[in-house]
């Protein structure tokens, strides 16, 4: 089957122009479905394409994907409800983030989305109180390693992950959106102050802060694994944002270059394709499209470079060297 980027390019084309799948042959359908599964976009793709001119086996795959996405949405919303119940007596809002937030607010970005952990944002000063209330309600620590626990508490933007002992579902409790060691310092208090109520205890970030968070998560923190889904989120979220307010908000959070790049990339892949791309934009696009014709990861050197870059973004050089050496000694190896 074709070279690097083939299946990812088919996925992007199908999301941007669903009617384009009518021209696919059997190999094309296999590549498209493989990439959609690998990027966790198959539920979204199934809803975008629908049951139009697609082969009967694909209809069954679409039906399974839609059912799985609906199941994950129900489960995610139940977890949000349980977290809200556990924190009912705590005097503060529970701000939902990422997939659960999109689903709870009925946003386009949540349609067909597969949802993993529950992510919430609370004030930094409330972290200890929130943690104890969640533990009392059945959540337990995942990180048993003292180094990992201490690293999270001192340097990260969230508590060490917690998992519920009965439901086996994880919650990540954030007090800001980037690690404390990152060069950018988003104003988490401003995000909390501008949060919009969904129902009762649960809130969601403002439309502009949702884009800022998604862009920061994708471009100022991670290694771009799963980047096509993250960029689809951004493409959908931009439709609800006031672009003038977004620029001001991005500057306030210190991530204006990342938000502007996210806008260009979203336009390049899912929009009009008229954005003027920089050389760095084109390198990022190569990383985003790094899948072979079977949906597997390709361009190993490029992926490794972005993995190293993700750590470089999170911490100063000496701290990075100590951290990577410690993790290496403990047997961790990059994927």
From TrEMBL:
Q: Its domain of life?
A: Bacteria
Q: Which Pfam families match?
A: NTP_transf_5
From the Swiss-Prot or TrEMBL record, give the protein name.
Nucleotidyltransferase
């Amino acid at each position: 089957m074709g070279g690097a980027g083939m299946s990812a390019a088919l996925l992007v084309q199908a999301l941007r122009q669903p009617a384009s799948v009518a021209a696919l042959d059997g190999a094309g359908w296999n590549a498209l479905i493989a990439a959609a599964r690998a990027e966790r976009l198959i539920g979204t793709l199934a809803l975008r394409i629908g049951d139009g001119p697609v082969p009967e086996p694909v209809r069954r795959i679409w039906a399974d994907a839609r059912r799985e996405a609906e199941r994950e949405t129900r489960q995610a919303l139940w977890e949000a409800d349980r977290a809200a119940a556990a924190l009912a007596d705590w005097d503060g809002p529970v701000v939902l983030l990422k997939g659960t937030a999109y689903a709870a607010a009925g946003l386009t970005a949540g349609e067909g989305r597969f949802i993993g952990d529950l992510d919430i944002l609370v004030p930094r000063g409330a972290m200890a109180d929130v943690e104890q209330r969640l533990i009392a309600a059945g959540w337990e620590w995942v990180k048993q390693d003292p180094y990992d626990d201490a690293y999270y508490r001192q340097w990260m933007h969230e508590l060490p992950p917690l998992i519920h002992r009965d439901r086996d579902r994880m919650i990540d409790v954030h007090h800001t959106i980037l690690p404390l060691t990152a060069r950018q310092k988003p104003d988490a208090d401003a995000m909390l102050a501008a949060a919009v109520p969904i129902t009762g205890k649960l809130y969601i970030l403002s439309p502009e802060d949702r884009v800022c968070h998604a862009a920061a998560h994708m471009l100022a923190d991670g290694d771009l694994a799963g980047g096509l889904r993250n960029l689809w989120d951004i493409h959908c979220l931009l439709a609800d944002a006031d672009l003038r307010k977004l620029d001001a908000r991005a500057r306030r959070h210190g991530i204006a270059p990342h938000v502007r790049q996210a806008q260009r990339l979203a336009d390049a892949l899912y929009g009009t394709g008229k954005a003027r791309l920089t050389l760095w934009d084109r390198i990022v696009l190569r990383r985003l499209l790094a899948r072979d014709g079977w949906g597997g990861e390709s361009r190993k050197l490029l992926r490794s470079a972005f993995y190293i870059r993700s750590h470089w973004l999170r911490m100063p050089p000496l701290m990075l060297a100590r951290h990577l050496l410690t993790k290496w000694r403990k047997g961790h190896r990059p994927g």
